[in-house]
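I am still getting used to backbone structure tokens and would like to learn alongside you. To get us started, please write out a protein record for me. Once you have written the record down, we can walk along the chain together.
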Amino acid sequence: MSQSSQSFQERAATIRARLQELGVTSVTAEYDGYADEGAINDIDLTPEPATPIENTFKEILYNFFYDLLEERFDGWENNDGAFGEFTWDLQTDTIRHEHKSRYIDYEIFEHTISFSENQH
């Protein structure tokens, strides 16, 4: 998790301004993790900027979404883990977060079968 003295709102405002300069209207960030490891796998910008974004800005984006995920679901990557997606609509300035936790579930069925002659 990256450390920042800025709030999420302040970080979002800075990132949003840069994305809007690039003509981006939507950002999608997908993540997946289990067995105590996980990562933001992919970040898609729509429309894709005409010029490639700098690696430092890519890192800022990845850290922003990773920190947001950790803030909402600390330990999301543990055990069976989780996966999901953030969709940031820059025009309405809203982030939709769809999170799916994995877990093992089971059903118990119990039957008693008697072969005693006293039971019918």
Summary: The chain has a mean pLDDT of 90. Residues 8-101 form one domain.
